[in-house]
């Protein structure tokens, strides 16, 4: 599995974990009242902040683990050779940029469909909280579908 695929898997796993934690919170006893839009907005903003922080920490740990894995795999090489291998694995070429554009396109399409679904929910007299959760779900779904597409293209080719 390529470096980019591994990085995407770690990112997706982090996103899934955070989504599961949010769902447990939202369905639990400590969740805000169903009509308390302000409390839901604050809760979502807190989870977004936690998500960004967690993603940064996990990506740093991933890069450290990746470098250690290469060092262990190439145990007969010196430090400069291991550093060269790590750097060459992280280089982004035109193929990687094309894959990223294709993945981002599907993510944005999915989020756009979620926005339309949220507007339809509001038009059908559903609560604002439900519409916001539809948009949040579409964002998470878009991230997962884009990640799967990213892995597919890196492993099978564009």
Keywords:
5 helices; 158 residues; mainly alpha
Protein model, in words:
The chain contains five helices and no strands. Helix 2 (37-73) crosses helix 3. By secondary structure, the chain is an all-alpha fold.
Q: Gist?
A:
The chain has 158 residues and is mostly helical. It is built from 5 helices and no strands.
Helix and strand layout, with pairings?
Elements: H1 3-27, H2 37-73, H3 79-89, H4 94-123, H5 128-156
Main structural class:
mainly alpha
Shape call: elongated
Distance N to C terminus: 16 Å
Helix content: over 70%
> What is the averaged pLDDT score?
89
Low-pLDDT stretches are none
Strand content: under 5%
Radius of gyration: 19 Å
Largest sheet: none
User: How many DSSP H or I helices?
Assistant: 5
Got a strand count? Answer: 0
Element order, helices and strands?
Answer: HHHHH
């Amino acid at each position: 599995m390529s470096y980019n695929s591994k990085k995407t898997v770690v990112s997706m796993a982090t996103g899934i974990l955070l989504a599961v934690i949010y769902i447990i919170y939202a369905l639990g006893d400590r969740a805000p009242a169903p009509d308390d839009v302000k409390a839901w907005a604050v809760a979502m903003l807190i989870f977004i902040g936690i998500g960004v922080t967690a993603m940064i920490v996990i990506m740093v740990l991933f890069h450290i683990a990746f470098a250690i894995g290469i060092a262990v795999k190439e145990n007969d090489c010196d430090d400069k050779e291991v550093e060269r291998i790590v750097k060459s694995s992280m280089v982004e070429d035109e193929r990687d940029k094309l894959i990223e554009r294709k993945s981002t396109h599907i993510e944005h399409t999915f989020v756009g469909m979620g926005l339309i679904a949220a507007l339809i929910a509001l038009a059908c007299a559903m609560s604002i909280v439900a519409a916001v959760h539809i948009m949040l779900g579409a964002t998470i779904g878009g991230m997962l579908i884009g990640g799967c597409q990213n892995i597919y293209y890196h492993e099978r080719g564009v």
